[in-house]
Design goal:
Elements: H1 3-14, H2 18-25, H3 30-38, H4 42-50, H5 54-62, H6 66-73, H7 78-86, H8 90-99, H9 102-111, H10 114-124, E1 141-142, H11 148-158, E2 167-171, E3 177-182, H12 183-188, E4 205-206, H13 211-221, E5 225-229, E6 235-240, H14 241-259, H15 274-301, H16 303-308, H17 316-339, H18 348-378, H19 380-410, H20 420-443
Helix pairs in contact: 1-2, 6-8, 8-10, 13-14, 15-20, 17-19, 17-20, 18-19, 19-20
Length: 449
């Protein structure tokens, strides 16, 4: 979609020229329509959606964020809504139900056909954030005793109704997972070959496992589909690579938002109402404002010290900036390492030792540089204060920044919550406390009134 096309749609919507909008939409692809909707306000999104052809509307709806789907649902008649939800894949349907009010979701669930309700209801019973709520219960299942000819016949019969036909699930008579077989291996084998001779074993995940962990495993294995089993190793669904990548993308967006001191929007920026943007940021600002009072308290305690040696105030921005950035770097590195399973909470001892060495080395380098710059101008005492403070601050900030994500994971809190803003503020206060303590000792000053 070009800028001209979007400007044309926006102008036609503003002028309420619905016939003109319909004409323009008829020339656009689903991807172009989605791009246009992401740039429109919610009320105009709903109007644009109502002008789409039924088949196009279904394709567009499936690819919208659940939060946007929820707003569109509010403007649809019951018969339109039931038809729309009926055509969704079960996993997409569950995501939509999670966003809707409970009464609306329950009404829609009971309006589904018996077959679709049978597929959806068990998924709603799994915990939020679990693989069971993101899997697809629609897949091709074959047995080891089936021949290639029988398998291909089964694919032709049910292939149009499943998530993917490129990876087939192999189970025994009572649905215990045996392995998987790729469609290309089936096609290349002779028709009389039993599936038991060409399938391979595979990793699987349980329905109650964390969806992000399962998605990470699926991506690491480069698997088109990852089997999902129950506690008795019976196959109940698959996690496709498409859904896995969506889960990981959502997780990355959430971590990036929280690392920047905000809540994730879960919808396109330009279509997000102003009050939601404010709400996504204000809560974090309030939390950070309260934590920043630590810094104010430290400055107040050492007010007398500053009065006796005003030159110390000149280095406050430098020291707090370096301390905060050192802690944030360590936190970001460890948050990422946790996400890709490079480290576990049990590794906290090793992480602390490594970060202490990293922080000590960086502190020594920066401290030496600071001493060389400060000493000729402000004297040896100030140079020593800056050098020792940088050495201490970098070491402590690196240790705290590295340990906090692991502690958060242990407490079952999103590690990103303890990322950049919070740790930066904490390191500011700690760095000032170290700075004035060292300064008081070297210069022989009082620590406060």
């Amino acid at each position: 979609m070009t800028i001209v096309e979007f400007d044309t749609i926006e102008r036609l919507l503003r002028d309420e020229d619905l016939a003109g909008v319909t004409s323009v939409l008829s020339t656009m692809s689903v991807a172009e329509i989605l791009a246009a909707m992401r740039r429109l306000r919610s009320n105009r999104q709903a109007l644009l959606y109502r002008l789409l052809d039924k088949d196009v509307a279904m394709a567009v709806f499936e690819r919208l964020a659940p939060a946007v789907q929820t707003e569109l649902v509010a403007g649809l008649r019951d018969e339109e809504l039931v038809s729309l939800v009926e055509d969704l894949d079960p996993d997409d349907r569950v995501l939509l139900f999670d966003e809707l009010p409970a009464q609306v979701a329950d009404r829609l669930l009971h309006g589904l056909s018996p077959q679709e309700r049978r597929l959806t209801t068990p998924m709603l019973g799994y915990p939020q954030g679990s693989t069971g709520r993101r899997m697809s219960p629609e897949y091709v299942r074959v047995k080891p005793t089936m021949t290639v000819a029988e398998t291909l016949d089964r694919v032709r019969r049910v292939g149009s109704d499943v998530e993917t036909v490129y990876t087939l699930m192999v189970t025994d008579e009572v649905r215990h997972l045996v392995g998987v077989v790729a469609l290309d291996d089936v096609v290349l084998a002779s028709e009389s070959t039993p599936i038991g001779e060409i399938y391979r074993e595979t990793a699987s995940v349980t329905a109650i496992s964390n969806a992000e962990d399962a998605a990470r495993l699926c991506a690491d294995l480069r698997a088109i589909a990852l089997p999902v089993v129950d506690s008795e190793q019976r196959l109940i669904g698959i996690l496709s690579i498409d859904d896995a990548l969506t889960i990981l993308e959502d997780a990355e967006s959430e971590d990036a938002a929280r690392a920047g001191g905000a809540e994730p929007l879960r919808r396109p920026y330009l279509s997000t109402p102003i009050h939601r943007l404010v709400r996504a940021r204000t809560v974090w600002l309030l939390v950070l404002a309260v934590s920043a009072m630590l810094t104010v308290g430290v400055l107040e305690r050492f007010e007398a010290t500053l009065g006796e040696a005003v030159v110390l105030a000149l280095f406050i921005p430098l020291l707090t900036g370096i301390g905060g950035n050192t802690g944030s770097q360590a936190a970001s590195t460890l948050t990422r390492a946790l996400a890709v399973a490079d480290v576990r909470p049990a590794d906290i001892g090793r992480v602390v030792m490594r970060e202490a060495q990293v922080g000590l080395t960086m502190g020594a380098v920066l401290g030496a540089l600071g001493w060389c710059i400060a000493t000729p101008i402000y004297g040896v005492d100030i140079g020593n204060i800056i050098a020792l403070t940088l050495l201490s601050v970098c070491t402590i900030a690196a240790v705290v920044g590295g340990a906090m994500p692991l502690l958060a994971k242990t407490l079952r809190v999103d590690p990103a919550v303890f990322s950049t803003p919070f740790i930066s503020t904490f390191c500011d206060a700690t760095g000032l406390l170290i700075y004035f303590t060292i300064a008081s000792a070297i210069l022989g000053l009082g620590s406060g009134s």
